């Protein structure tokens, strides 16, 4: 049996035993082609991450300094015992969940239109959806500052209408608005793929059988695009958890700006407490990875 | 059909009056008049792009006409959305809800109509039994074969007891053998439960075998309508003559009266001549088309006894296509090639009595000659 | 028979005519689309409009129009230095990441190794790792190396972040390349390396070009990791602008933004001409 498996594997790999070197040589060459990128990534991506992992288990010993190599879990204990960090964690998760939910909801009509319509407006819509992705992060946030600030466009408009003005800059609401705009395109792409695979005649079947638009959405679109909804939601949630420039610029230095990622940045650049910053980023990464694993499980359960 | 409408003026369930549909400046349907009588199966037949599917979609309510009126059961439904029309529709791709079990698929329309649970279960069971799928209620659609899925789609459409059943190329996704069986089954079912049905197809065989009434469409217009046999035997336009079945079509004119009483001589531009029956509207000099169906021509050995026929000529066998039940010969004549279809004799040892290159005699009766107006 | 056929065309008499519905779900969908598109477009349009303001301070709508903020931008020494730094950094990144990533892509599509999955994961990991995590790890690493705040550190960081894009785009290009063409060249007498150079490379040249362009754009727009590597030599234009808008609210950043948008649009237009933008977008998700 083992013999059999072995020989069949040999056949499937191609060259006859007479020329064992013929297969080996090109593979070795390909290995050389990989060296520059693998070398760069290991030396400057993996190794720094490992060092940082080590830092997260070391003591803070003055700005940008770490104590001697005594591996301790002080930093993680500090995070989970201080109510302040629980609050930041909670705010981060709530903001990310709200952003992901709004983004998926408002992306749905756009994705549906892109998947179904043959209208000449379609190209324009694609451009509008792609534009936030190719626009510089700082530019997008600046645009929102112009709109949301106390004397900004929105409040000018509200005043013009005789309505009370809103404080949105340096608030969580402002952060949510700006993040949603930045991340909605990802939801559009992830929904577009699944909606396109739904047979349009299923929607007509619902109508033909007496269903309304609401039934089309509830009985066909949502159940059959569930995988895309979930994937899009998670993709945005993960990016919102890791988002850093938007909370910093729109949320400011107050509570609204205090999310996990901005906390890492402040610790890294201002207080220079690198061990704690490292621990915080690994907690953040762990949350993200757990959610991705959960999604995989949910999709498998669905099948 | 003629008897039927003469005996008792049948109730008209569906009527289209002057229906047009433009997509931008492109006319998908230019002008369609249609009346469908109760319990009849009416087929919209035509090549792709002739407007038949658009017409069906307007009947269903998925498209609204640019002009004209659609009436179902005496009510103007021209702009009624599909969910308020009481129609059942079966699509080419079946369109079963992939995430719902077969019985839930069938129950869907009943749920939308608020049919109480017990009645729903009962009607779903009956409908599934009707299409011979009583055991399959718990399956998911992708666990069924194509033919079974088709029957589920049919059950889902008829269980709501629609005023009209619409079938949009329902058999084109099936293989040839299954398609033939499903034709019989659908026809049988439609008769059994007495369901007014509109079928859309590009398959003329399907149309001929299933319909009470055929509407041949071309370029957004109705070319001709009538019973299957009238459409086949008396095509009114060259399009109908060539689209329905195979035919030998000649362009030419009436030249003079024949020496036999009651007959006229038609001469085609290629020189081919035939005697045809006299009729009021056939005066010499008129440009006309002549259609000769392959099966109306008779082949006999050239040296054999020739029976007296006004239409006969010599030819040679240029090609033989043996098709099992019949054989189609290509016959070379002095004027042009003709197609001849001969029913094969079941008892005969040799499938084909003629060989290629053989000289033969072709004959046909004046009644076989169909005159078609040039339009 | 004939009569029966004709009765069909008889006029429709006493039925009340229906009228076309005024609103249906299609209109609702159109309204939703317009609203969402406006939301997506709003901050970008506002920035472009504001950049032509003549006002001293941020206000909307501007009381007058001028190009003064563009003049200010082009006369600002620090910002101009930032722009030049960004362009230089992006160009070098595009070349380095383009070459290293393309080589890796060739190897990855050709060799069958049981480490294939691992190698692929390594090459896409920087893309999915949160920016602050990568940034902090590089800050710690380059500080230890004594390279903190140097151009070298910045370049290495940007190359690491750009390699995934290059690999994804070139792998996609190579996968759509029919390998039998290369085999045909070999059957016609070319050696494997010659076939590779004369047939394969020219065939995927456009993928490699657009990969390099994408690496350029990625580096040019990068702020997150760059902010973690602060120093006098690492103030790229986006970072300079980031710091500027935290303290000032005048229309100068709008002019910078409009220039950045124009550069991005130009680059994307070029990439779209190579026909790979759809593939990039698809893969990026």
Automatic annotation (TrEMBL), chain A:
Keywords: Cell membrane, Membrane, Transmembrane, Transmembrane helix, Transport
Similarity section: Belongs to the binding-protein-dependent transport system permease family. CysTW subfamily.
UniProt domain ABC transmembrane type-1: residue ranges: 89-295
Keyword Transport: yes
Major localization class: membrane
Phylogenetic placement of the source organism: Bacteria, Pseudomonadati, Pseudomonadota, Alphaproteobacteria, Hyphomicrobiales
Alphabetical list of SUPFAM superfamilies matching this protein: MetI-like
Full protein name: ABC transporter permease
Subcellular location: Cell membrane
Regions crossing the membrane: 32-55, 88-111, 123-147, 167-195, 224-252, 272-294
Pfam families: BPD_transp_1 (PF00528)
GO BP annotations, alphabetical order: transmembrane transport
GO CC list: plasma membrane
Membrane topology category: Multi-pass membrane protein
PROSITE patterns: ABC_TM1 (PS50928)
Source species: Aminobacter anthyllidis
Keyword Transport carried by entry: yes
UniProtKB/TrEMBL annotation, chain B:
GO CC entries: ATP-binding cassette (ABC) transporter complex
BP GO terms, sorted: quaternary ammonium group transport
EC identifiers of the protein: 7.6.2.11
The keyword Phosphoprotein belongs to this UniProt entry's keyword annotation: no
Pfam name, any one: TOBE_2
Keywords in alphabetical order: ATP-binding, Cell membrane, Membrane, Nucleotide-binding, Translocase, Transport
InterPro entries according to UniProt: AAA+_ATPase, ABC_SmlMolc_Importer, ABC_transporter-like_ATP-bd, ABC_transporter-like_CS, Mo/tungstate-bd_C_term_dom, P-loop_NTPase, PotA-like, Transp-assoc_OB_typ2
GO function terms (MF aspect): ABC-type polyamine transporter activity; ATP binding; ATP hydrolysis activity
Domain of life according to the entry: Bacteria
Signal peptide: none
Catalytic activity line of the entry: ATP + H2O + polyamine-[polyamine-binding protein]Side 1 = ADP + phosphate + polyamineSide 2 + [polyamine-binding protein]Side 1
Span of domain ABC transporter: 14-244
Keyword Cell inner membrane on entry: no
Oligomer status and interactors: The complex is composed of two ATP-binding proteins (PotA), two transmembrane proteins (PotB and PotC) and a solute-binding protein (PotD).
Role: Part of the ABC transporter complex PotABCD involved in spermidine/putrescine import. Responsible for energy coupling to the transport system.
Family statement drawn from the similarity comment of this UniProt entry: Belongs to the ABC transporter superfamily. Spermidine/putrescine importer (TC 3.A.1.11.1) family.
Listed name of the protein: Spermidine/putrescine import ATP-binding protein PotA
Gene: potA
UniProtKB/TrEMBL annotation, chain C:
Residue ranges crossing the lipid bilayer per the database entry: 28-52, 83-106, 127-147, 153-174, 194-217, 254-275
InterPro entries in alphabetical order: MetI-like, MetI-like_sf
Cited Gene3D superfamilies: MetI-like
Pfam families in the record: BPD_transp_1
Any one GO biological process: transmembrane transport
Protein's membrane topology: Multi-pass membrane protein
Keywords (A to Z) from UniProt: Cell inner membrane, Cell membrane, Membrane, Transmembrane, Transmembrane helix, Transport
UniProt domain ABC transmembrane type-1: residue ranges: 83-271
GO cellular component: plasma membrane
Compartments, record wording: Cell inner membrane; Cell membrane
Family: Belongs to the binding-protein-dependent transport system permease family.
PANTHER family, sorted: INNER MEMBRANE ABC TRANSPORTER PERMEASE PROTEIN YDCV
Name recorded for this polypeptide: ABC transporter permease
